[in-house]
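Supplementary Methods, section 5.1.

A reviewer requested that the exact input to the structure prediction be made available. We therefore reproduce it here, unchanged from the version used in the analyses.
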Amino acid sequence: MTDRQRLKEILLEKSYRSGTFTLTSGKTSDFYIDGKQTTLSAEGAYLCGRLLFELIAKNDTKIDAVGGMTLGADPLVTAVSIASFLSEASIPAFIVRKEAKGHGTGNYIEGLKNMPEGCTVALLEDVVTTGGTLIKVIKRVEDAGFKVGLVATVVERQEGGVEVLADAGYTLKSIFTREELLSE
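The structure derived from this sequence is encoded token-by-token as follows.
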């Protein structure tokens, strides 16, 4: 069994639910993917880290740091950073806050000391529906002087996120689309 096949099993066991759910985007859906149930499990985090690091390693543009919006991206960026270290190609992680820090530096981004000024970053999300969270993260990261070289997710729900990001000039890469996750 490949890492991808095993991750699919874990996602379906721990993260996928059918029913009626209201998503972050405000849309109603007949299924929900709670990515954190997978990304906060030891094996799920490890597999997400390895597979997302593979996407980063194959990217045309060299990636100098990996980050995303707290809370969904937190375990992912840590897992990718560890996978990169174990592959002897260390990439530091950073986290983008939902609100600027209310004390100290007042930063939106945590981990700045590990990032070269103006470097190229990969942005991660566990599940993408409309792409709205990633658009916010892209703006904050670019406003801080960094370049976005890759946008990636574990599961792309196929509900408009790819198109929203494409309209903004970014390509979304995923380990799974909804169709791939639910196929036999």
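The first strand starts at residue 16 and ends at 22. These observations are discussed further in the main text.
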